UniProtKB/TrEMBL annotation:
It catalyses: D-fructose + ATP = D-fructose 6-phosphate + ADP + H(+). Gene3D superfamilies: 3.30.420.40. It is an enzyme of class 2 (transferase). The keyword Metal-binding applies. This is Fructokinase. One of its GO terms (molecular function) is ATP binding. InterPro entries: ATPase_NBD (IPR043129), Carb_Metab_Reg_Kinase/Isom (IPR051804), ROK (IPR000600), ScrK (IPR054618). It comes from Liquorilactobacillus uvarum DSM 19971. Its cofactor is Mg(2+). Belongs to the ROK (NagC/XylR) family.
Amino acid sequence: MLLGSIEAGGTKFVCAVGNEDYRVKNSVKFPTTTPEETLGKAIEYFKKFKIEALSIASFGPIDVQYTSKTYGFITNTPKPGWKNVDFVGLLKKELDVPIFFTTDVNGSAFGEYTVAQLFNEKIKSLVYLTIGTGVGGGAIIDGEILGTKGHPEMGHVYLKRHPADSGFEGICPFHKDCLEGLAAGPSIKARTGIAGEKVAQDDKVWDILSYYIAQAAIQQTLILRPDNIIFGGGVISERLLKKVRRDFEKLNNGYIDIDDLENYIRMPRVKNNGSATLGNFALAFNELHK
Ligand code: ZN
């Protein structure tokens, strides 16, 4: 059996086919250009394989409500040309297979959840937060993706400001100083004038980011009480997560008992940014057997 996966990012698309063991058999990457060209390439790719179902983990915002007239669309994105694109409709017409549609971060969350089940880890719920060009979050609770009216928007919550960062306006086009506006990769350059990957490791900007990311972890802990909080995305490193755990402990102040913080706040188990592809295979499989 072959299953299809599309990880649709704002800068690149990763298309893959895999089997029911969720192993990648073939994959291809191409830049995200116009919807016509990009979706055309995806369709052409999957037509070469006899896939039985497909799952799409897409940049957003997207419409995931089955009853909505615009179900399967990319909706209010600032990305030029991609607003109100009928992503699922176009692929369904050409490929004619069951399609599951969710956010990129939900795909990653489901991949991490699936791996935890395969390795018999005692994980019933988890939150996945990605801190990259933007900030997004998804949660899996007892095998179900959280959100009925729409997908969660965990990247746009408001936070307490770091005392050394009070002069920074924030970069979210909607809210300025929400989590994304304060902790996404481009916020580093907005503060320092230097791209995140070139900023010195002892720069105080990392303590500022850590303070905000730790608040996100505290909020998710207080609201959902998940088994794990996983951080992915280009901004995240083990070095930064060390600071996040330190700040989490300070903010938590012993209120909630977390027995193994190293494991509670962690990086993905699936290597090489593969969580979303693996999650897609599992979601495509589920869609086929619904
Ligand atoms: Zn925002």
